Structures are given as structure tokens and as C-alpha cells.
Q: What sequence folds into this?
């Protein structure tokens, strides 16, 4: 049994460990800012949404994702509320449709209600993917349907292409606007054997994120028709997101896009290899198996606190961080861990990862 | 007569000129980020509003400004809407009182209405300072009174301490919450011979900015009682301002606070010296005379475009940028220029500034 650590001690041990399984490893502020200083060179700063590398990045994104216009925003929360407010006003209908685990429902303190006066109909069941059948059962008119690709909260699940197309047809047939929560859209493309652009073609408006798999400091983009984005800029100002300068985020997003987007298929393959090893461990389950993206859940027959202590002990003794957070779990004595695979895992062999999880299970056993 | 330049050419000439009158000169992205990289060292990043230098900065601000709690936010637009929404909900009244040139009225696309469902009563006349008499004439109940120190749009004017105290008493006697738009609060303190903390003591909630005189990349803070700031954090999330990482802004705000706040009284003195020289030029008027802060208006008997062309020509020929923007003016053939004095002006002698404006007037004459 490892000695129990304080939350702070754990975080220090994880940060200090030279090898990580998750994402791109811990952020190194000094190194990151020095890299951005290099990338910035002598470019002029952006100013309240125009000029500098900001406009260049927006143009590049519009091109890459096949939409007429793009808008860089500080956060996805802002991007999505803005998109849905515009769809709602255009439809003269304040009701939205989305899954019960939608980010707007779980993580935004109901901004869509309290700031925008919008209502939501929750479609489908929280523990599984949204389906066309769920949509067919919907009895109320809605302004917009939000689809999240992949559905993060349930393990990064993606519907089949046929199912996804059927859901989009449902909206099209009813004149319902289609918005995609593409926080992990880049990571979804390999599952369908399609480009991000082909996925975006299904939707009227698209939100993508730069800080997750692309590893930027923060930042998001909203894409759509020109008039839609023109309107979104007004809402950006209302939200307080039209900053005098966004260049640290813009530069960081551009670096992530150029450096990491080409590596995303590799992250997904590696996630599948790692998941296969973990799924073979006793009492361990991987969801989905195989993973659809570079993100998946690992169900472990252990208490969360014991896992975190074991992870800190392994970081201390072996210099390897396997996990830093545990999601709740409905089954007593079981825990769910979300793994997201990026650059960091490329320094680890599959044997090391497997051995690490074996040790984690041993150390966290009662 | 200078040759007319395109807007882009002007901006290039200004950016390339080695000497500036305004603020701290043009931003040098590479150098700025390299400086932040140095300042960051090995500190851990903040994460969704906690940890890292973010919490340290919030604690430092609370201490400095004498309020129980502080919240760092991406923008002042977000900070002020949040503050006023909270005051409105607590008062169970949706009406706010502020001056017609309030930032919320002019520059935020009516976010206070469209996002927060708040109404405003505009108090006082747009061309002059708000007064206690204006407040006494108010016939409707209001939840909060917003005072801006200084009133930027009319030249950075400040009311006398007695007048300001009388306005605050008006609110106190009626149980109306008092909020200060302190975008330039740091710069107001010298006028009163008081500390920023003593100014803040008048108000229930305080917004301060880091990107203006303090020269940070962007960023704002909201201060108030602990429960007020706890509530503000919820609204920050709703606004999409609870970013995964704010550290470039936080580091930059800290550098501005430590490096430039002690220099603010010097900026104000220099602004007065410069204003005195300009006020002596033929046909030129300075508002207010003398300036109350480091910001003031210069009224010039010239067309705006001619001034901008002359400024670009002087930048090209003498390597000196005197102005880069012209405010509109109600009198044909006249222009108003806002000057804000910071680090850049310390490299210029008063004679150089005066000679520069003489040349500007000559070159822009019809």
C-alpha cells in the first residue's frame, strides 16, 4: 500500500515525473512561451479581432474545414452558446435539442438559459449514444440540434456514418439547424476514414477546440456561413470575448494545428494499441473497445483515492505518470479513468504502459 | 503636404518608427513573450480558474485594493456585466444607472440587455461629468450605480473628491449598489492624492484593467466581498471566460502591476507637462487642462485624415509616431485626439513633442 499523499503532493509528483501517459505531458510554461516568442517573430499583434496572425488563422481554418468563415474565440463555451443563440433567433424558437451529457448541460452553469434565455430538450439516454430513433421520438419543435463528435462523457463514442447521416437528415427534413460540438472533431475523422472537412460538411455551424489534442494553451473557433460569423462577432463582443489581443492563444493554436493535426491519426492508433493491452488485464474494461478516437475510458475495479495514491507513488518511484484524475463511478469500489493519447505516450513502450497499470492495480488493491 | 497613405501603409510606418509618444509604444510580440517565458520559470499552469500564478495574483490584488476577494477575467466587458447582473439579482431590480458614455452603453453591443436582460437609465449629459445633481433628479429605482473613474470618453475627467463622495452617499442612502469602472483607476489615484485602495473603499465592486496603462496583453479583475466573487465565478463560466489556462494574461498582468504601477504617478506628471506644451500651440486645446490622469484629449483645428497622413509622414521621416488614431469631432475641420502617456514618452523631450505637433499642424493644414 502506498502512503497516502495530499492532493498537492500528488500533483507535485506528477508534474515532476519525466514520463507521462496522458496527452502531451504537463505544460512547461517557460518552454511554451519561449516557443511562442520564436513563432511570433515580428508579426504585429491582433487588435479587437482583426489584424495579426488572428485573421490568417481564421482564413486557414475556414479553408481547412470548408466553411465560408471562421471566428477565433477564447473558449468553446462562448462559441457554442453564440452559435445556438443565433440559430434560435433565426428560427424564432428558443428550444434546442441535445444529449443529456452535452457540455452545455453539464459544464457551463446553464449559461444557455441564464445568459441567453434558451431552453433545451434532452434527447436520448445519458449512458449511450444519441440515435436517430431518439430524434424521431422528439415531440416538440426545436431551433437547432447539437451533435457532439465524439460523445466525450461516455468514453468518446462515435455513431456509425450511416447513423450520423440519418440524424442529420432528420434535422434537414425539419429545417432544424445543425451544430456540431467538435471539441474533438480532429480526433473523430480517422474513425470515419474522412477528413475533418468532410465531417464539417454535414453541419451548419462547427465548433472546434485547440487546447485538447492540438495542445494549445486555450482557444476555440466557430465556423459557418459569412453572415452567421458576422453575427457571431457581435455576440463575441457581448460575451466579453472580443479581447484587445488574443495573440498568445492564436499563436499557440496555429502551432498546434500545424504541428499536431498531422499526428492525430497516430494518436488514435496508439490509443487502440494501449487500450488492447489494458483490456487484457484482469478485471479491467475499456470503453469503447476498441477506442473510436484517441480518448477512451478505462474501468478499474478499484477505489478512486487508492488509484490516485498509487499513481502518485509510481510517479515518485518510477518517474511515470499514468493518471491524474479519476471520474466518478456508479459501482462501489470501481473507478472510471479517461485516457487521452497524444505526444507523451510516444516515449513509452506498450510493455511499460501495461506493466504500469499492473502495478497500479496491485498498489491500489485493498 | 504629405502624400496620402493607405491605412495599412500608415500602420506599417508607425510600427516601424523607433520612437512613440503614446502608451508604451507598439507591442513587440516576440520580445514580450520571451519576457513572459522568463517570468514564468517553472511555475505550474492555472487550470480552470485555480492554481498557478492566477490565485497568487488574485490574492495580491485583493490585498492591494483592500477587498476580501478578487477574480481575474479575460476582459472588462465580462467583469462589468457580471458585477451588474449580480447586483441586479440581489436587488431584485433589473435597472442600472450609468452615464451616457459608459462602456456598457457604447462599446459592448448592449450585452447588458441582450445577454443579461438588464435595463439602463442614462444619468447626466454625455458631454460632461456625472454629478450628484443628476442623481438627485433620477426618478426611478435602480439596482446599481456605475461610476467610471476617470470618464474616458470626455477626456479622462474626474469629479472632485467631495463631488464623488456626494455621489456615493446618494447610492448609500438608497441602498443602491456602487460599482466602479476602474479601467483607469490606477491612473486616477494621483489626482486625489489617494491610493487605489482608498478609491476602492468607496465601492461595493471594482473592475480594474491590466492592458491599458499597466501594459499587459489583456485581462481584467473584478473585486468585492467573498460571496460576491464566488457568484461572479459562476457567471464567468456562463460567459465562457473560465478558460482552461489564462497564464499568458496572468503573467503579463503581474509584470504590468509590479513594473508599471509604481510609475503611474510619473506618467500623470509627464502627461501634464506635455499637455501644457500642446495647449500653448495656436488653435490647439487640451481637455481637461491640466489633465486629471495620464490620458487627455487634444483638440486640433485639422481634418482627421490629414492628421493621420501627417503623422505617418513624420513617422517615416523622423522615426517618431505622435498619433495613430483620431476620434470624431462635431465641429467640421476639427479633430480630437486621445493621448495616453506611458513608458514611451519618457524617451522624448518636451521640445521634441512640441516640435512634432507643430510639424503635424503644418503638414495637415489645407
A:
Amino acid at each position: 500500500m502506498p502512503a497516502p499523499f495530499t492532493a498537492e503532493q500528488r500533483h507535485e509528483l506528477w508534474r515532476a515525473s519525466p514520463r507521462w501517459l496522458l496527452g502531451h505531458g504537463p505544460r512547461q510554461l517557460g518552454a511554451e512561451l519561449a516557443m511562442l516568442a520564436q513563432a511570433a517573430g515580428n508579426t504585429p499583434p491582433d487588435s479587437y479581432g482583426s489584424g495579426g496572425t488572428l485573421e490568417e488563422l481564421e482564413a486557414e481554418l475556414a479553408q481547412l474545414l470548408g466553411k465560408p468563415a471562421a471566428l477565433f474565440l477564447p473558449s468553446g463555451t462562448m462559441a457554442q452558446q453564440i452559435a445556438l443563440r443565433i440559430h434560435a433567433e433565426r428560427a424564432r424558437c428558443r428550444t434546442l435539442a441535445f444529449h443529456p451529457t452535452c457540455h452545455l448541460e453539464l459544464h457551463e452553469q446553464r449559461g444557455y438559459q441564464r445568459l441567453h434565455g434558451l431552453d433545451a430538450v434532452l434527447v436520448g439516454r445519458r449512458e449511450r449514444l444519441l440515435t436517430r430513433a431518439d430524434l424521431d421520438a422528439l415531440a416538440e419543435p426545436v431551433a437547432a440540434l447539437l451533435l457532439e463528435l465524439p460523445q466525450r462523457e461516455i468514453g468518446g463514442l462515435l455513431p456509425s456514418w450511416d447513423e450520423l447521416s440519418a440524424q442529420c437528415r432528420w434535422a434537414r427534413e425539419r429545417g432544424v439547424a445543425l451544430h456540431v460540438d467538435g471539441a474533438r472533431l480532429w480526433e473523430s475523422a480517422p474513425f470515419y476514414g474522412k477528413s475533418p472537412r468532410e465531417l464539417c460538411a454535414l453541419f451548419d455551424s462547427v465548433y472546434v477546440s485547440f487546447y485538447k489534442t492540438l495542445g494549445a494553451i486555450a482557444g476555440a473557433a466557430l465556423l459557418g456561413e459569412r453572415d452567421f460569423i458576422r453575427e457571431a462577432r457581435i455576440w463575441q463582443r457581448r460575451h466579453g470575448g472580443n479581447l484587445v489581443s488574443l495573440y498568445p492563444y492564436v499563436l499557440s493554436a496555429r502551432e498546434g494545428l500545424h504541428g499536431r493535426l498531422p499526428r492525430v491519426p497516430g494518436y488514435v492508433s496508439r490509443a487502440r494499441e494501449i487500450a488492447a493491452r489494458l483490456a487484457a488485464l484482469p478485471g479491467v474494461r475499456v470503453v469503447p473497445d476498441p477506442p473510436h478516437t484517441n480518448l477512451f475510458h478505462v474501468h478499474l475495479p478499484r477505489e478512486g483515492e487508492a488509484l490516485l495514491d498509487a499513481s502518485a507513488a509510481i510517479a515518485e518511484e518510477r518517474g511515470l505518470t499514468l493518471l491524474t484524475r479519476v471520474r466518478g463511478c456508479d459501482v462501489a469500489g470501481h473507478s472510471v479513468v479517461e485516457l487521452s493519447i497524444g505526444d507523451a505516450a510516444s516515449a513509452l513502450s506498450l510493455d511499460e504502459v501495461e506493466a504500469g497499470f499492473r502495478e497500479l492495480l496491485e498498489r491500489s488493491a485493498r
